[in-house]
## 1
Amino acid sequence: MPLTLNASDPAAIEQAAQRLAAGGLVGMPTETVYGLAADAGNASAVSRIFTAKGRPSDHPLIVHIPPAEAGDWRASVAQLAHSVPDFAVALMAAFWPGPLTLILPRRPEVAAVAAGGQDSVGVRCPAHPVAQSLLKAARAHGVLGVAAPSANRFGRVSPTTAAHVAEEFAELGDEQLLILDGGACPVGIESTIVDCSRGHPVLLRPGMLTPAQIEAACGQPLRERDEAAPRASGTLESHYAPRAKVRLMSGEQIQAALDVLGQDAKHIAVYTRTTQRAARAVVQRRMPADAAACAQELFAVLRELDAIGVKLIWVETPPEGAEWDGVRDRLQRAAA
Ligand code: TXA
Ligand code: MG
């Protein structure tokens, strides 16, 4: 089993920072989801991430950095990225530390393997206090940035608690993975990704920041991604998949299907905002009416329903409105 340490103990943070500096793997809480972290400047450390996740080596990772000293974001990304456009700096100023990843032209100090061979690099300054303490402590040991994908096996649901991470990598020993337990992640779905390497901002992955917020902060229209955009594993059609089959339906469709099955409904869970009449065997979870609350619990709910052993998860389609874009995106991928 991996070693899990309580992140409120400063000695645990220091131990984790030393692991990173020595080329080891650390389960790192962030405000979005838990990351599987390694020194972004150490190619063999980064390749351990790909092996542990079973992730194809051409899928780039996000590099995490501590907050800028004196708020100078341009200086703080300068060692990882070159030719950083003004609109990207405006986005950093508006949303960092926070759930936003920016794709920028990569400097050679970032291991090419961390960037999946791309000439760009994804950079994010997380808002979670444990992530920030770890990134600062690692820097004191010479670690410039920390590469961290979500700490799940390739294609599976992202982890939002330390226990989820331990479950995903149960076969790794305590020498191979140290997990910092920083509690449940407050945002719950992965960061919004904006490509800033093409002269104009392009939305690669929706998250909890809305397009309107991003456009207001950078003063430019946000373009949708096109075919030329680099491959992003979070943008593969089938991703975030639980073992159970997920289907998105309206509340009425779910009720109609439950009515047809009646007492024969078995191995089914429903996750709905509307109240459903269902046989007792049907597992019912109430979807929060608030997008942020739904995002926060979404992956934990999918994992919990998987653990119960249901075969079908019928999810009520989220409401329209940009604040639901991130949740809608993850559910559509879980259902694909
Ligand atoms: O919230 C998050 O972003 C979490 C936490 C741990 O920070 N991380 C995360 O990492 O979701 P991951 O690897 O599961 O998803 C990162 C996404 C992938 O879809 C990857 O392809 C994309 O970011 N990405 C990273 N670097 C990129 C680059 N240089 N160009 C294009 N896409 C990139
Ligand atoms: Mg992921």
## 2
Amino acid sequence: RKLLCAICALLCLALNAGAADLRPPLLLTGSIYRDSQDLSGAWTYSKDLYRTGLTDINGWVAKSRMQRYRDIDVTAEEAKGGVGFYEFDMDRGPQMNIPGAWNAAQPELRYYDGLIWFQRKFSARPLRGQRAFLRFEAANYRAYVYLNGKEIGRHEGGFTPFVLEVTEALRGGENRLTMGVDSTHDAQTIPTPITDWDLYGGITRPVRLVYTPATFIDDAYLHLNPDGSIAGTVQLNGPQAAGQQVSVKIGDLADISVKTDAQGGATITLPPPRGLQRWSPEHPALYDISFSTAGDTLRDRIGFRTIAVKGSRILLNGQPIFLRGVSMHEEEFGPNPARNMTEPAARALLSEIKQQLHGNYVRLSHYPHSETTLRLADEMGLLVWSEIPVYWTVDWDNPAVLRKALTMQAETIYRDRNRAAVILWSVGNETPVSEPRTRFHAAMAANVRALDPTRLISAALLVERHKANGEDVTVIKDPLLEHLDVLAVNTYTGWYGDDKLADLPAMKWQVPADRPLILSEFGADALAGYHDASMKKFSEEYQAEYYRNTLTMASRIPTLAGMSPWVLKDFRSPRREHPVFQNGWNRKGLLSETGARKQAFDVLADFYLHH
Ligand code: GCB
């Protein structure tokens, strides 16, 4: 254990030094408030299962003209006669609505797992000294981006944003944006191909063309300190980034000015503002914030609160809080979801938690959810657990994979650190204990502490069952514990395994007394509308009884500080192929895929109402 701690400490040091270089080169924080053009709508596409558009075997592919990103008018080339020969035509391709996963777009794409090329033509105004950027909120899993035939960048990771500068490549007038999106996962991706949710390949979140002045505010961040003061940073980008005055306005509470250093950055510190209303689920106060230089203004809406742990309690604004939550996948209601989180879609899901379940918390599993969802959580008053898809297992010994995890974390933290709703960063889900795995997670935890010391760290761990003095005891024995602020465990006793539901209430738990515990998951499948008085598995009655008994068991754990049962809504999962009850859906939802309430929904809502 000592050796492990020493290794971790060394790693922490190395990482603290390295955390700065994980900062994404461009952030464009608050880009929804900027001068921008939304590129949502009909894009054309072309399937490319054999990756012909990306590979070039000794010029052979080039000769066969498979590269979809070429900036040519195929129809015009064809009209010239036999010289031009192209095996694609992105202008006349079938259309798909973007954002949205391809799996829901066409029956033939339901289980398509590979590369698809997308094209969007758009008209841009001439820049006249401005700069232009394309900001992609998410493309699952790898993206290859070309503008007017030129490669402008690549990105790996299906749930985090990336920004590419197109000031040089953009034309005043018509432009051709082409994107290859490859959904293939392998042993070195995060996650690996083995998960319990839908593939959802494609451009799943909005793409925007953003205009800025030559020197602009790329990022600005504010948070509340435990002593009531406000601190933060601002970062300019451009030829005149150094030595600039930046004025910071927080509603009508504060108006100060800071000066950027030689790197274009400045730190912000503000004494406790008088009359500050703290953000909480009951009162989600958000302030209109502006950061302005002579040439640019960046806006945001930010809430201020503190989050801490004391003994086995979680303290929000200094007061103990019990997290009344539920877990949720990024998938909208409906029989054929496309992971398209429009504001109404996200609001519909979060309202179920806030208004109907009487919740104050949501676990956004198992990856960073859409920016729309995070902003709504801020606005509606729902605390958030945010996670990186280090799920079940990844290639623990591979430094390149660790680097990917740390980069995803950095992309998420820089994206969401202004969201008061986010209180917990999770470093993974249900990863079986081994030395390489613990080292990997410890590095992730150190990375989070370096990037954001203001929030809490957790991970959804596995529990073990032990026999002690003839008694059956559930214990958490995981060396990762010492790196976490909040313990969290997933438990499925009564669903997986042979335990009887009747035995659940009396089950004993032995957990560390000095830290809060969250039940990050528990759940049972039920097909909405399937009733069985004898409580067969998959019936609503079984699921409801499972909830009643698990809640009784949970209430007897003295350090319990919250829970996020699995899961709000039935969700698509190709691994769930029971021909009667599942048919491609994980049925642990409290709601069916279309929003029909199962009996267990009311059991949980009633528990939360009185908790
Ligand atoms: C789990 C996983 C979750 C699964 C769930 C299940 O422990 O964390 O992703 O969907 O169990 O339904 O088995």
## 3
Amino acid sequence: MLNGPNLGILGRREPDVYGTQTLEEIAGAVAREVAEHGWEVRSVQRDCEGELIRAIQDSYDTVGAIVNPGALMIAGWSLRDALANYPRPWIEVHLSNVWARESFRHESVIAPLASGLIAGLGGFGYQLAARALAEVVHNRS
Ligand code: DQA
């Protein structure tokens, strides 16, 4: 799980928009979801784009990824390039329905590279992404 800026304070960040679940709780739910595949969750959250890039470069050994880029969806070109070289499938997730919000949230520079995208379902979206990732990974191999 790779989470971008401002997602480390989930639970106390605009709860009306992002819900009350913490990132740790979401990661726990994802861990339970993927346990049946024998997978473990590596959960990384960084507020800086460079640190997210470094985390991607250090994660080529993972089976796949769930990525919430936060506001880097809008212009995170370096993040996009790092994901382009990530050798495994990944799913983009947004807690909120970005298309029901301000127009500056309507474009994602990373979305064209994702296997799929889930938005608007809160923390549950990460669980759905985990299920989808398992399908994609198993269909690839
Ligand atoms: C977000 C949506 C982004 O527009 C926003 O900048 C975030 C969170 C979401 O999960 O809904 O930080 O990615």
